[in-house]
Design a protein that fits this description.
The chain has about 190 residues and is α+β, with helices and mostly antiparallel strands. It folds into two domains: about 140 residues, 60s Ribosomal Protein L30, Chain: A (2-Layer Sandwich), CATH 3.30.1330; about 35 residues, Wheat Germ Agglutinin (Isolectin 2), domain 1 (2-Layer Sandwich), CATH 3.30.60. Helix content is about 40%, strand content about 20%. The protein has a five-stranded mixed sheet. A two-stranded antiparallel sheet has the order 6-7. A two-stranded antiparallel ribbon has the order 8-9. Strand 1, helix 3 and strand 2 form a beta-alpha-beta unit. The structure holds zinc ion (2 copies). The site of one zinc ion (ZN) has 8 residues, from helix 7.
Length: about 190
């Protein structure tokens, strides 16, 4: 197993087709995006599957640093914006894998498979992972340069105390309920 992939699996907790997808995307960026050491890359991911862990681990684009943006589109599209070059690379991971039967996946997650069925299921997933790890880039990835506006930088906002629970939160996330300014968590309790 490639050293980078080993690291990614360690970070993610298991090997699976999803993490292999993220690995191939991140690896492509690593190999083709020539950038300075200290240059900041911003990742915009359009799904929240296993794959995004590989993006964070391999490329250092992380949720906490703010150079990792999630758009809930349910697509295997990953865009990487270089602040220094003001250009972006958009990578679409082709729908090349046989679909996992959703009913089988549900039974697998619920631990309802017989050991025989589970073995077959795991074998299919391993084969899919191997295929993703070894197929040529052209078979898996559709890559193009795109013109996108610079993603906003992470901003810091002042905090205020919630008038319900007393915990501090970012002022611009405040809600009003029952005449009080409250945090989102308390607001949810008021409206439910
Ligand atoms: Zn996974
Ligand atoms: Zn509160």
């Amino acid at each position: 197993m490639d050293e980078d992939f080993q690291e990614v699996v360690k970070f993610h907790g298991h090997s699976c087709p999803g993490i292999a997808i993220g690995y191939r995307v991140a690896k492509y960026v690593k190999d083709h995006y020539d950038r300075a050491e200290d240059e900041e890359l911003v990742a915009i991911v359009e799904n929240s599957s296993c794959s995004v862990d590989a993006i964070q681990q391999l490329l250092g684009c992380t949720f906490g640093k703010g150079n990792f943006i999630f758009k809930d589109h349910g697509k295997h599209v990953y865009t990487f914006y270089s602040r220094d070059h003001e250009k972006a690379l958009r990578i679409y991971f082709r729908n090349v894998l046989p679909r996992t039967d959703p009913a089988a996946m549900k039974r697998f997650l619920a631990g309802e498979m017989s050991s025989e069925e589970k073995e077959g299921f795991m074998k299919l997933r391993e084969e899919a992972t191997d295929y993703i790890l070894t197929a040529p880039d052209e078979e898996l990835l559709v890559v193009r340069q795109v013109d996108i506006p610079a993603p906003g930088k992470a901003r810091i906002h002042p905090s205020i105390d919630c008038q319900e629970c007393g915990e501090a939160f970012m002022e611009i996330r405040g809600r009003t309920a029952a005449g009080k300014t409250v945090c989102e968590e308390c607001y949810q309790k008021f409206v439910l």
